[in-house]
Amino acid sequence: MATRSDSRARKGVKTKCAFCLRIGSGLSVYLSRGQTVPRELDQFTVLLNSVANYNLLRCPDCGTYFKKYTVTDNEIINGYVSVEIEEITEERVRELRRLEANWKRRFSRRVHSRLKSLRVDFTPLEHEVIAAYIARQQEELSIYELAQSLPREDRSELQKALDALAAKRVLKTSELQGIRHYRIL
Ligand SMILES: [Zn+2]
After folding, report:
1. Of residues 43, 136, 26, the one with CA closest to residue 82
2. Low-confidence stretches of the chain (pLDDT beneath 50)
3. For the chain, what are the domain ranges?
């Protein structure tokens, strides 16, 4: 005899675990008011760290999907920072993953076609620098972000590569609040 949970499983209706039931369709955690993100979320599987600044999470117990992102409202009096956790469907997860893959492909294609048109040679480290931009899908990175992506015992090696890329007009340097930034393209 089939139990109720068996027949639910057959219909593809997921049974939520106690934690996900408690979250319901979503949750706003106001960090600026001293609220904290539930610990349980640390155990969730991260399916995607999007360049659009959100994460896709899956509950390890019941498989419910959530989108997690931070909202910062800079209003002086009523400003707040909140972490938004929002249940999403499996279909939406697939759609967001597809979007992310498309962005990545487009970005990489654009960078490579631009580099090709420059007709210059790159050292292995210079290639790694370019790969760091593609991995992060960002056109501009600070010296700190670059150093984090390309950990080197000798930081001057990285600096040399960045200077060389700037000389080849692959990167453009700028200064933002005293921190050096490098923009690709
Ligand atoms: Zn769950």
Report:
1. 26
2. 1-3, 6-10
3. 4-88, 98-184
